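EI: anyone free to look at a 198-residue chain?
SC: sure, send it
EI:
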Amino acid sequence: MPTPSPLAIPTRFEGAPDRVALVLPGVGYTPARPLLHFAGSVLQQQGWTVQEVWWEVPDDFGGFGPQERIAWVEREVARAVDAEGGACRLLVGKSLASFACGLAADRGLAAAWLTPVLTFEPVARALHRTEAPTLLVGGGADRVWDRRIAESSGHEVLEVPGAGHGLELPDDAVGSIDILRHVTARLDRFVAALGTGR
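SC: here you go
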């Protein structure tokens, strides 16, 4: 086995072997971006094994039909879940990753969805049948967020007023950092509750 390059970016952070969380990207929002980076930090601090998933959305993804998009995301996520041999217990995903809500529901996986695409009916429908603990975080100015759908799902909901799809405020970097702190704190509480067997 080749020695990893010292310049390689790690994508796995070992913790409890029976508590693995997958960190799932959006279309262009990688696990290195702030929301997912700090989500991973929260998980590591609470003793979880964290596996980042880095995917490359196909060039022709924009031409996929709705079911093709879901199938592609579910394939990527299922591959990562299956690789953990039953130890995966949590998904933390941004935007496009929420197309795996149905998979999470079917497998009983807890999830924290950051800016889920609630205006996409299959995502909303999957959330309504999900029984595992789930946190939904969205921005009040995000066109793919729908507070009514989020609250009717029966899951934990955090809406950030005025925030767009990146959970940032336009022309307000400092205010956006405050949002990052708030979302990270809420994730911290959600993950801590999972550890108590909620």
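EI: The mean pLDDT is 93.
SC: 👍
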